[in-house]
Predict the structure.
Amino acid sequence: MKCSLSLTHDCNMACNYCYAGVKNSEVMDIEIAKKIIDFIFKTIPKDQSIEINYFGGEPFLEFDLIREITKYVRKIEQKYKNPVMIGITSNGTLLTSEILDYLKHERISLCVSIDGNQQVHDRNRKFSSGKGSFSLVNEKLDLALSILDYVQVNAVYGPDTVDKLLETVSFLSEKNVSSIHLNPNITAQWSNDYYPILRKKFQEIADYYISSYTNGQEIAINYIDNKIIIFLKGGYSDFDKCHMGELEWGFAPSGNIYPCERLVGDDNNESFCMGNTQTGLNVDRQSTILWSKNQMGNLKCRNCELQQYCMNWCGCTNYFMTGKTNQTGEFMCANERAAIEAARRVLISLKDNPLFIDHFYQYLQRK
């Protein structure tokens, strides 16, 4: 079960894209946070793993709150004998040695948002003054890499930066980050003109990936690694797919319950609000959301030879791109095809490479 707590609607940056809604000063009260944690443990079956992610806004604006919630989580997990994995997604600007030491001690995983080198990152990820944030984020990322054993990065690409995808991968790989997550800006306007560019750039990433392993450098890129795992499994299982509203919840600072952290937004979308931790889960609303998401809306998807390897089931991505959780957009189709083709070529090229084989053996061990 994946549960994301949006600790605050506030942020110290003013990026050109954002899923967190309009910035305001609302912060999750510790008593609401405790009710959320109680709700999670009481609702989830005891044999099911729990993953809690701190989200925002910028969650490190509320570092004291993070510590209080984590202390409560650790206390409750002992009572229920159900281990909890905790993660945090941050813009990285507020990281300090104190914070990073705390994350290491509490076994909290960190994902830093950085879109690439300075030229790429500063196009969209800026402060309210208009100044780019790259210099500060890059410095803080280096600090995190020096203290933590495992640091993930989230790099968002849009129509204005997709041509720099290889440079982004190269930049982050050379910093030896643990895992590179490339994610498209799903709120952007992607025209058909970008689809050939996507395929070309993913093939360039495949070349870079193959070259890295051939030269003895281990790297991890979500679009390559995840697709290869799916190839080896023979396709996405029901467990792998989107479980928004069922095995994935997002909690607003108000305590309102949403099917995914991306859908919390301004905390005013009644069609996605599934209740509140104080009043309980609205089962009728939850059932409506689940039913709608599970009705495959694309005839083209149903008949596609790549369907079992494609993320056409991601409800929040579909919603942002088409307005329907079960309707996949043309861009997502092009993006997934590009990723599948690239990953397939990597697997064929490196199937006998010892480092590559060991990389996925370690992955399977972690699972």
